[in-house]
Design goal:
Elements (H helix, E strand, L loop, with lengths): L7 E9 L4 H12 L3 E8 L5 E9 L5 H9 L4 E6 L5 E12 L2 H13 L3 E5 L3 E8 L1 H11 L4 E6 L3 E4 L16
Antiparallel strand pairs: 1-3, 1-4, 2-3, 5-7, 5-8, 5-9, 6-7
């Protein structure tokens, strides 16, 4: 996924937290031939609801049609599209990377530069993680590839609207009397 050019829609779908809801949402996308690039789901702070973050290929799925179809599902409460510029996006990558004794310091340095974590150390491999914006995850993954990725798992993106910083400002307080 290339963040520089928007060829996707990021949808946040609030649904009732009931059995089978995710299967119905995924089934809708499959029946319509919409390609899901990323899917993340978890309960919200209100146990009655779950939040599904779906990243959909914009070329295969016109936004209006997706929203119209999702709204037909009985357990869907609210649908929001989040533009990248107006949202906070995050993704988690966990990877086991080949690392000889000579390469180990290079992998550790790369993890440090990206502010990731070393999760495990073996004789010939390291398990690392990074939680960051999807574009930085992409860059990190590409830089790990030359070492040899043994296993890799990405969570898919999660997103929330960016906070509004245009509210009232604190008034200046003078130090003197």
């Amino acid at each position: 996924m290339n963040e520089g050019t928007t060829h996707h829609h990021t949808l946040v779908v609030l649904v009732e937290n009931k059995a089978g809801v995710l299967a119905r949402v995924a089934g809708l996308f499959a029946r319509r031939g919409f390609n899901i690039e990323s899917l993340a789901v978890a309960p919200t702070d209100d146990e009655r609801f779950s939040r599904i973050t779906i990243v959909v290929d914009a070329h295969t799925a016109p936004l209006e049609q997706i929203v119209k179809q999702l709204n037909k599902l009985i357990n869907v409460v609210k649908i929001s599209e989040l533009a990248d510029a107006e949202s906070v996006l995050s993704e988690l990558l966990v990877a086991t990377v080949s690392a000889t004794a000579v390469e180990r310091s290079q992998v550790i340095e790369l993890v440090d530069v990206y502010q990731g974590k070393i999760l495990g150390v073996g004789h010939a491999a390291l398990t690392v993680s990074l939680n960051d914006r999807p574009d930085r995850i992409d860059d990190f993954e590409e830089l790990l590839r030359p070492f040899g990725i043994i296993e890799l798992q990405r969570t898919g993106r999660v997103a929330l609207p960016r906070l509004d910083h245009t509210g009232p400002r604190l008034r200046a307080v003078n130090g003197g009397s």
